[in-house]
Amino acid sequence: MQIHITGQHLDLTEAIKNRVHEKLGRLDHYFDRVIDGRVVLKFLAHEKLSSVAEITVSAPGHDFHAEARDADMYAAIDQLADKIDGQVRQYKERLQRHRSSPVAAVLATESE
Q: For residue 77, with 0-12 CB atoms within 10 Å meaning exposed, 13-18 middle and 19 or more buried, which class applies?
């Protein structure tokens, strides 16, 4: 998966980039084809939860978006990874249920 990381009002250190790649790399096993992820990391000095992490993942047939806020950037990245992982897993499970449902099997046999 291609991950593009953008920082707003913060320096993107190698440690932050490695954390993003480590946490979001697990999305690769959900899709066979290449998916694209765009991560935006922001530091908002005027807010209590000043670290914001956003991601948009483009996969075949669906786009996913998640946002996480925390006082610590690493914690925000961890929360973001959990949120997007849950969304992608739920989508894949829904696709698998739809494909294996009896109605879909009946429709498939009728069309043949």
A: buried
